[in-house]
Amino acid sequence: MVLMLVKFDLKKRVKLAQTVWFMYWFAVMAGVLVFSMGLFFKIELRKRSELMDNNESHFLPNLLILMGLITCGINAFGGKICYDSLDPNKFVKWKSILKSFLVLCVVFNGLLFLTALMCFLMRIPLQFTLAEGLKNGMRYYKDTDTPGRCYMKRTLDLMQMEFRCCGNDNYRDWFEIQWVSNRYLDFGAKEVKDRIGSNVDGQYLMDGVPFSCCNPSSPRPCIQNQMTNNTAHYSYDHYTEELNVWKHGCRDAMLSYYGGMMNTIGALVLLVTVLEVAVTIGLQYVNSSLSTLANPEDPESESEGWILEKTVKETFTDIMATMKSMGKGTKVEEGGEAVVTTVS
Description:
Number of strands: 2
Shape: elongated
Strand content: under 5%
Distance between the termini: 52 Å
Helix content: 55-70%
Radius of gyration: 32 Å
Number of helices: 9
Oligomer: single chain
């Protein structure tokens, strides 16, 4: 029993082929969109690659770029087949490879769906990547004279101003590291000696944050040093007063930014997947309707088209039986070779 049988005459076949041809070229544009999204995502990640712990985060944008290119190629080829199906003489040359092409399209649709799923799931590993990357970046903030790290201060400052955030989890993360370079410290001053001496690791720690943590919307001039000392500033109580630095951490801010971007890309890839499934079904109808012409010599004769020649259950059973027979055939060949070896 065939699945979703439809009867066609010449007019319906021509209309079907033209519609699927149009959808294929629309799908080519969708492939360009997937490619563009992957390229944009890669550029956005590369802007702040110094703040990420590994390069695995670039796997998804690279995959999107690849899937976009494949989408363009497959749909351009499918569009050509649909165009040639309007002329039975031209369509004959595609009949031998059309079944394999349809199988390839089904496999590709599955991969496209998995790509969309990965867009939604990548938020989890990205969270750990950002946490470790920001932690290391903050430690290197002071190393403006160290090769390979001299731009870290600039990167972090720009990032904190752009995302309106401070620190990894919050602004207090800056209290736990030395973010001022030794070249700017007066080691003869008592305050500097006391701060370094009171720390086990010999670091100059203070209750202050970089200028990029300051909130320019605050009516009060920025208090970025001695933030927990009530006596250091007039009419100031750090327990009750609204701090004039960004309160939320950069990890959550960046995760929200990239997470929103990945959710949007994932939703668009899902829509492209639906479009790919539609054009694959359309091409199958074109193929089956031309293969079942009542009179192949007469293009105006009626025909039937379907998605599957059998039901889903029967088709799956046939595929499994074919795979089993192929496996048995391989074993027989191996056994035959063993017998020949023994006789000789």
